[in-house]
């Protein structure tokens, strides 16, 4: 069965006018995004001031681009300012600190107004959160006596993050201007669920993208694109990352659903989400972007008894300590891999994310058996994931002999690796050995065939029948 066609290319560039007709988001999986919006502007000849509310609270002011998409009306931005501290209840309490305002209490079915003096407004300080202190009828209390009712604000206060410009135009003009800027607080990530049947290695795979909006702005009827890849971006010192409660909201189209589209974009990959999407602040939306069934996977048991490559830091002299490298771990690791190819019902660029494996039990219920993360994976590459340690398969590594020639620069050493299979199935275990003492070595003898992995590593493939034990021995000679 071939994978379902969820990745047909749907969205392309159709000209400036059609792109400018709606709000657009391009979100990078590094907690930032490009916002593209449209502003109706009626400009008179000369210099004037213009403000636009509705940008994000984590906008990067230096990234703002304001332009006429037709290129026929030259705009000169003489000055720009950004206010990202909109008024909220805490801010208003701070503004009226030391003054007396009204507080409304609900008692039964009626409302009662009381007067309270704000002795101290709630404040977040380096030592923690300071609760408000309100004086009511000569008594102090640490909670608000009701819903505060504030007097009218002056013209200098803002209710939403606002961009303000001083703009010069040579002639009066009306236009739909394009506004673009970078903002933090928007991110996305991928998640993959792979379900194995009760027996066998073919999985049913589904992949989801989760888009998170912590930017302080609601987006309505927005075209959303996602960039997969590590795009270089300068991180400013003391940059604060917002923390917020996440609420999950799955959006699925009615009837025959559109699909997430994917295409190459420069040195990265761009995914376009279908339709126009509403994204509220503090919200997470999820969309399935790939489904493939079946996908052939391979399970691998790996035993690396010493788990060290002595040459990783480049030794200056041979390692001649007889005890070095004689440690043994009994854990046999479980890996599962699959090829991201069309022949395996995939063959698409897979964004970085978390891969979770499930196995169906005999009663049909699925149980979690392990997870790991993958990096951005191009098509035709192999995904290989560590899922945990085997329970019924154990191994033990032993140094059988060590000999250093008294007059020559030579060491001979023999190891044995015992693999015990206490399960009810036949298995193959890949045994890895690191030849750590020196770069010039040769194998004198081996009980089974081996393969050289690299300059300092070799491995054995050890078949072990159910309930049986197999032992691998080899001798190595080092000279320098």
Write a short abstract of this structure.
By secondary structure, the chain is mostly beta strands. The protein has helices at 16-20, 89-95; strands at 24-28, 32-43, 46-53, 65-67, 76-83, 100-107, 110-120, 123-125, 128-130, 133-136, 139-141, 147-149, 162-169, 173-184, 186-196, 202-213, 219-228, 247-250, 261-265, 268-272, 277-279, 283-304, 331-339, 353-360, 366-374, 382-404, 410-421, 427-434, 441-446, 451-454, 457-464, 469-479.
Shape: elongated
Q: Quick check: average pLDDT?
A: 82
Percent in strands? over 45%
Oligomer description: single chain
CATH topology of the domain at 300-339 and 383-479: Immunoglobulin-like
CATH-level-2 architecture of the domain at 300-339 and 383-479: Sandwich
Rg calculated over all Cα atoms: 32 Å
Low-confidence runs:
1-21, 237-257
The number of helices is: 2
Alpha-beta content class: mainly beta
The total count of strands amounts to: 32
Largest sheet: 14 strands, mixed
Helix content bin:
under 10%
* Straight-line N-to-C gap: 57 Å
Q: Which CATH first-tier class of the domain at 300-339 and 383-479 would you pick?
A: Mainly Beta
If you had to describe this structure to a student in words, what would you say it looks like?
The chain has two helices and 32 strands. With 480 residues, the chain is mostly beta strands. Among the domains are: 32-85 and 158-184; 89-149, no CATH class; 300-339 and 383-479, Immunoglobulin-like. The strands form five sheets. Strands 15, 16, 18, 22, 23, 24, 25, 26, 27, 28, 29, 30, 31 and 32 form a 14-stranded mixed beta sheet that branches. The longest helix is centred in the first third of the chain and has 7 residues, at 89-95.
């Amino acid at each position: 069965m071939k994978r379902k066609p969820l990745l047909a290319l749907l969205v392309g560039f159709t000209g400036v006018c059609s792109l400018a007709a709606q709000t657009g988001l391009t979100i990078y999986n590094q907690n930032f995004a490009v916002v593209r919006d449209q502003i109706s502007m009626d400009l008179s000849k000369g210099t004037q001031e213009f403000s636009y509310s509705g940008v994000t609270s984590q906008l990067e002011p230096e990234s703002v681009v304001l332009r006429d998409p037709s290129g026929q009306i030259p705009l000169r931005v003489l000055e720009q300012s950004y206010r990202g501290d909109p008024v909220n209840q805490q801010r208003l309490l701070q503004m009226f600190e030391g003054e007396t305002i009204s507080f409304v209490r609900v008692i039964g079915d009626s409302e009662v107004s009381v007067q309270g003096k704000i002795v101290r407004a709630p404040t977040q300080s380096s030592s923690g959160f300071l609760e408000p202190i309100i004086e009511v009828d000569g008594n102090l209390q640490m909670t608000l006596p009701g819903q505060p009712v504030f007097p009218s604000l002056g013209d200098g206060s803002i209710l939403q993050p606002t961009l303000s410009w001083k703009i010069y135009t040579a002639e009066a003009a009306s236009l739909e201007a394009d506004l673009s800027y970078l903002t933090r607080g928007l991110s996305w990530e991928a998640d993959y669920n792979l379900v194995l049947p009760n027996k066998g290695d073919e999985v049913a795979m589904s992949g989801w993208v989760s888009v998170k909006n912590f930017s302080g702005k609601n987006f309505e009827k927005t075209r959303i694109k996602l960039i997969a890849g590590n795009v270089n971006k300068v991180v400013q010192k003391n940059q604060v990352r917002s923390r917020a409660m996440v609420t999950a909201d799955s959006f699925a189209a009615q009837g025959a659903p559109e699909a997430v589209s994917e295409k190459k974009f420069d040195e990265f990959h761009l995914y376009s989400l279908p339709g126009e999407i509403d994204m509220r602040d503090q919200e997470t939306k999820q969309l399935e972007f790939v489904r493939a069934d079946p996908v052939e996977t391979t399970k691998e048991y790996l035993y690396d008894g010493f788990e060290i490559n002595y040459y990783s830091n480049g030794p200056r002299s041979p390692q001649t300590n007889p005890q070095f490298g004689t440690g043994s771990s009994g854990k046999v690791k479980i890996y599962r891999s699959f090829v991201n190819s069309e022949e395996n019902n995939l063959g698409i660029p897979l964004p970085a994310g978390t891969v979770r494996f499930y196995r169906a039990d005999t009663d049909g219920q699925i149980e979690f058996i392990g997870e790991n993360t993958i990096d951005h994976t191009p098509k035709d590459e192999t995904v290989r994931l560590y899922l945990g340690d085997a329970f019924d398969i154990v191994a033990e590594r032993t140094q059988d002999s060590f000999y250093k020639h008294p007059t020559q620069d030579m060491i001979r050493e023999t190891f044995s690796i015992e693999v015990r299979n206490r399960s009810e199935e036949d298995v193959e275990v890949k045994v890895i050995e690191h030849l750590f003492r020196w770069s010039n070595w040769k194998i004198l003898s081996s009980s089974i065939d081996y393969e050289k992995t690299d300059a300092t590593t070799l491995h054995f493939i050890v078949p072990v029948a159910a309930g049986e034990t197999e032992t691998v021995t080899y001798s190595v000679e080092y000279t320098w």
